[in-house]
Amino acid sequence: MVAAGNAIDKHEQYKRVFAHFDEDGDGKISGSELRRCVAAIGSNGGGGGGRAGELTEEEAEAAVGFSDSDGDGLLDLEDFVRLVEAGEEEERVKDLKEAFKMYAAGAGDGGGVLITPRSLKRMLSRLGMRRSATECGVMIAEFDLDGDGALDFDEFKVMMS
User: Fold this and answer.
1) Three-state secondary structure call for residue 115
2) How far is Cα 161 from Cα 144, in angstroms, rounded to an integer?
3) How many whole angstroms separate alpha carbon 10 and alpha carbon 81?
4) How many degrees, rounded to 5, is the angle at CA 46 between CA 53 and CA 59?
5) Confidence class of residue 3 from pLDDT cuts 50, 70 and 90?
6) 109: which residues sit within 8 A by CB, 6+ positions away?
7) How far is CA 111 from CA 93, 115, 119, 120, in A?
8) What per-residue confidence (pLDDT) applies to 70?
9) Which residues contact 83 (CB under 8 A, 6 or more apart)?
10) 51: pLDDT strictly greater than 90
11) Which of 4, 87, 95, 102 has CA 20 to 30 A from 61's CA?
12) Which residues, 6 or more positions from 151, have their beta carbon under 8 angstroms from its beta carbon?
């Protein structure tokens, strides 16, 4: 039941953000309103420097065009939610790729593209968790969909979800 409550809370948050940036109150967000939204969010905690929190007019219009479900050139609440959640998913995948690289480093596979029992043991040891190579192999086997004894990125994503 907690998960349903969190989903409602999140949807309410989206509604509040949407209403705040729907400057003319028409129930739609234009490209220029989206630019101001991204700039405000970026300046309040985007971090990272560079162009974080910036969106060109062309980028804003492209984002609206990509997410606009009814073809009116504007985002309604549902379009806005899909756009925000797509960005969150993109960020989550980016974070998972960074974590995957740390676990796959030193796997001996020629490029850190697989998490092996050896590389998992090494990473867990760095985190203060002592496990044998056999224990690590058992952990990997649980999510090793292709049976090669190692985890590729797609298998790692399944494991982390």
Assistant:
1) strand
2) 14
3) 10
4) 25
5) low
6) 116, 150
7) 20, 11, 12, 15
8) 93
9) 63, 66, 67, 75
10) no
11) 95
12) 114, 115, 140, 143, 144, 159
Token pair 């985190």 in the structure block, residue: 127
Which residues lie below 8 Å from residue 106, measured CB to CB, with a gap of 6+?
112, 118, 119, 122
d(CA 114, CA 104): 5
Using CA atoms, how far residue 70 sits from 74, 118, 124, in Å, is 8, 51, 49
| Distance in angstroms (rounded) separating the CA atoms of residues 59 and 57 | 5
Residues ≥6 apart with Cβ < 8 Å to 129: none
- pLDDT reading at 133 higher than 80: yes
